Amino acid sequence: MADQPVPGKETARLGYLTAALAGVTGIISVAYGAEAASIALLGFGLAMLAESLSELLLILLVVGRMDTSCGEKTMGRAARFLSALFFLIGLVVLYESVNALATGVRVRPSPAGIMIASVTLIILPVIAWRRKLAGMAFGSRALVADAKGIVGPALLPAVTLLGLLTIQLSGAGLADPLAGIAIALLLFHEGYRIWCLSCGGWECPGS
Question: Quick one: CA dihedral 15, 138, 124, 78, positive or negative?
Fold first, then answer.
């Protein structure tokens, strides 16, 4: 009996699950972020949309490597595009956060945003744990490394949740742009991690 099919299917399922979760979370977060004028929630939503694309790329890289028709150069270009996308979103979030600190932006409480960030914060570590197990069974260093890399995206809902809770409980509007700055830094880290992937560097520092 072959060893690889079951872990391979598990890998694909986890990837699609994470991509779907990130995509839906991103769309909802952007909508509620715009409604509440929350830079942190908007940044979180955009980051999750980019993370959804990143997960789809991971499926192609790891599962697709069993198919010799998948070219390394094509995957490398796709990874570099995603890396640039994370850096671009990070720059936009950073600029808007600093501008909000300088000019002052009134942020409305967002109970829905708090709920979204809370659910995502609970689910992502579970996915990371299952992905690590699948990677070990599949013999994929890429999956095991990416399971550790989910720690970065998992910090995104944590930071967002902290900012939204602070606004909800105390009305301190500065919490939102400060959370936005932290989110921008996490986006830069994720962009660097994916850049490592583009050059085959799953064992790069910080990955």
Answer: negative
